[in-house]
Specification:
337 residues, TIM Barrel, eight-stranded parallel barrel, 40% helix, globular
């Protein structure tokens, strides 16, 4: 596809309903992925050099830029996405059982370059998720795969640890790291699990052979964030944090949205603040994945300066299309340093 055709198609997508456009893109990427790996027999080689981090001792990243969770919820198209130039990809959120998520409409675009989503962990469930990874993982060995995991809607908070334990145990052979999602605003009660008590429960069931990252909300006050960062820093089984998730507070204050969480440019300053707070607490070799409103090469560099070891994008990809990676190419070469 030529650059002009890609630009035209991207503009067309932005004219469609946000979730319809996303479903269409996933369908097209499935076709592209099948053609690429089943007909053309493309295979991305493993890297002999690149960016390495202590907690990922067996992995190399071709660069420090990743795709955030939420785009490839079912691990259906990660191999196709890897061809765009991402250094790593976070798939999910996946729950033990499949679920349809919250009622539609549940995804809205807002200027400037923002999304509000009330998806509710809609996903294919653990068995299908594993099969999807197994089908294409061997074709992209040089792109680390992170699994973002969460509890089912109908699982009570007192039983939530069982969902996380089942996911951790079952997915260990299939992924390179886990992201423990305790911070989505779209599953009732989930954010209450952002506590020192529940982190202790996660640590008790977490494997020791894969990195474990905790994903936190930007809506937590700084005092609570610092307490949770300190616990991650002190807990041997935890390897770092992913900050931040979407913001219900900003969705309400900026757009009067009664439900859902905001991602995109208006979230960037708060995300940057949360990364800087984390860097002040987390000590080597703990890592920080910075995500939230990253929309330009300048934003990537700011995240790195604030202390992010890895940086993720999502909403910028929706608004800018794959060409956002071209804009970032000048800094991608510097990020592994």
């Amino acid at each position: 596809m030529t650059s002009r055709m890609m630009t035209f198609f991207h503009r067309l997508l932005l004219m469609l309903d946000a979730e319809v456009a996303h479903t269409l893109v996933i369908t097209l990427l499935k076709g592209y992925q099948w053609l690429l790996f089943n007909i053309l027999r493309r295979r991305m080689p493993s890297l002999n050099k690149g960016c390495s981090l202590p907690v990922f001792s067996k992995l190399n990243f071709r660069n420090r830029l990743g795709l955030a969770a939420g785009f490839d919820k079912g691990a259906e198209v990660f191999a196709a996405l890897a061809q765009l130039g991402f250094g790593f990809i976070e798939v999910g959120t996946v729950t033990p059982k499949p679920q349809i998520g919250n009622p539609k409409p549940r995804l809205w675009r807002h200027p400037p370059d923002a999304l509000i989503n009330h998806m509710g962990f809609n996903n294919c469930g653990l068995p299908r998720f594993k099969k999807n990874i197994e089908k294409y993982r061997r074709f992209v060995p040089g792109v680390p795969l992170f699994a973002n995991i969460g509890k089912n809607f109908n699982t009570s908070l007192t039983e939530a640890i069982k969902d996380y334990q089942a996911l951790l145990q079952s997915l260990r052979p299939y992924v390179d790291a886990f992201v423990i999602n305790l911070s989505s605003p779209n599953t009732p009660g989930l954010q209450s699990l952002q506590s020192t008590t529940f982190l202790d429960q996660i640590a008790a069931v977490a494997p020791t052979d894969l990195p474990i990252l905790i994903k936190l909300s930007p809506d937590l006050d700084n005092k609570t964030l610092l307490e949770l960062y300190a616990q991650v820093n002190a807990t041997k089984k935890f390897n770092g944090v992913v900050v931040v998730n979407t913001s219900a507070r900003l969705a309400q204050s900026l757009y009067q949205a009664p439900q859902g969480g905001l991602s995109g440019r208006p979230l960037f300053e708060r995300a940057l603040e949360c990364v800087a707070l984390a860097r002040g607490v987390l000590k080597y070799p703990k890592i920080i994945v910075g995500v939230g409103g990253v929309s330009s090469a300048e934003d990537v560099l700011k995240m790195r300066k604030a202390g992010a070891d890895l940086v993720e994008i999502y909403t910028a990809l929706i608004y800018r299309g794959p060409q956002i990676l071209r804009e970032l190419s000048s800094v991608l070469e510097r990020l592994p340093s």
